[in-house]
Amino acid sequence: MNYEQSIEVIKNLTKFGINLGLSRIRSLLKKFNNPQDTLPIIHIGGTNGKGSTAALLTAVLQEAGYKVGTYTSPHLHSYNERICINGEPISSEDLAETLTRLVPAFEEVKQEIGESPTEFEVLTALAFLYFHAAKVEIVILEVGLGGDMDSTNVIQAPLLSIITNVTVDHTAYLGTTVKEIAEKKSGIIKKKCPIITASTDDVVLKVLQEQAKKLAAPFYQVQQEVTYKILEKSLKGQLCQFKTTQKNYGELFLSLKGDHQLVNAATALLALELIKVRGFQATDDDIKRGFVNVQWPGRLETINENPLVIIDGAHNIAGMKALNQWLKEIKVKVERIILVIGMLDDKDRKKVAYLLEPLVDRIIITKPDSYRAQKWWKIKDFFQQKQAVVSLKEEVPQALQEAVEEAGSHDLVLVTGSLYLLGEVRKFFNCQ
Q: Is residue 290 part of a domain?
């Protein structure tokens, strides 16, 4: 197959939707001698912060000279972005070649299990095969959805597991309470493998600690192991101070913006300390350079200077609360904030409107590129106080054009609401 044919195959798998479970991915990978079992892996789950933590670990370990494979989701522009080595997406040729190896096994899996592998399962298997063939030295593996039944959880003995936090999201699949969701996410904790969490929720901590105790897994809570604070903030990032129980890292400049990124950075520092005993060494200079050079597109990312355009992938309440906090601080540095927002139907749009409306001066609603955004315009009903400044533009380029034309040189255009929106926005501003 060529690349175009490969992408068609992957997209065709979306018809199987989200179908949690490990039987299909286990069957698929077994036919290729379980390449995942040969890879040193840091497994990262949680509701928010997974991607940023993965990006930080990748940046530092890459600075330390390691060949780092990173698997994240979703993508902003192309499937290639999900599977990277040292920050470089898998080439179209390698993607096509690896998928060509996988395709004949799809029918075998269907005959064996009774179901075909899903899109995410195939991408996960593709990543493992690619990383194995490329002989990467360490893999940063992000959970797709939940934990216990997520296809990434086919791994057996990671270097360590990370559960960044647990809040209510994806209730159709994971449960309706924090306790239920924490139980699902705790499924990535493995026997005698260290587990790190940055959660401060007592219910969540109890669930995770009980599972860790059951599996004799050393348990680390970030806020008990690391102290941190912001010294200075700017639109470029923030100067921070970090100290763990093992080491004082002093001042580090973090290119990722927002208070919530300190927790992700602290989590990454703790993870780096824990994998030292497994032979993965990063110097102070590696950490300093990694924190400065880290890139995580679509997370408070500046993609245009005049007018100032910043995009953020916040799409659930925890993410929107973090965005709300950042907006409160940045509001004094700009004259007006023009919000371009597009959300999926299954998100809590009422609470999002409540969090963002008091901080913005103009609202333009648009449609994310997803079948889950059929009623994209409904969020308009929740912007009660400023109906006069709310407009609907279904096509993303039209919404952006309107925002840019209205924005003055001291205004901020903020685009948020869904990761499915941001790829088109970055394309509009030639940021691919």
A: no
Note the pLDDT of residue 431: 79
**Is 60 in contact with 265 (CB distance < 8 Å)?**
no
Please check whether residues 326 and 199 belong to one and the same domain. Answer: no
DSSP assignments along 307-336, one per residue:
TEEEEE---SHHHHHHHHHHHHHHGGGSS-
In angstroms, the CA 203 to CA 255 distance is 32
Same domain, 318 and 188: no
Q: Where does 129-283 show beta strands of DSSP type E?
A: 138-142, 160-163, 195-197, 219-221, 226-234, 237-244, 248-254
Percent with pLDDT over 70 in the chain: 98
Domain limit, last residue, from 278, 309, 339? 278
Q: For position 71, which CATH number holds?
A: 3.40.1190.10
* Confidence band, pLDDT 50/70/90 cuts, at residue 76: confident
Q: Angle, nearest 10°, between helix axes 349-356 and 317-330? A: 10
> Can you give the residue range of the structural domain that contains 387?
301-428
* Lowest mean per-residue pLDDT among 150-159, 200-209, 375-384: 375-384
Other CB atoms within 10 Å distance of the CB of residue 154:
20
321-351 pLDDT, tens digit each: 989 998 998 888 899 999 999 999 888 899 9
CATH code (residue 412): 3.90.190.20
> Cα–Cα distances in Å, from 203 out to 174, 178, 179?
16, 7, 6
In one-letter notation, the amino acid at residue 39 is L
Structurally, how many domains does the chain consist of? 2
- Structural Rg of the chain based on CA atoms: 21
Q: What is the pLDDT of residue 385?
A: 62
172, 239, 356 from 383: Cα distances, Å: 26, 35, 9
In this predicted model, what pLDDT tens digit does every residue of 92-112 receive, in sequence order? 999 999 999 999 999 999 999
Cα(341)–Cα(379) distance, rounded to whole angstroms?
9
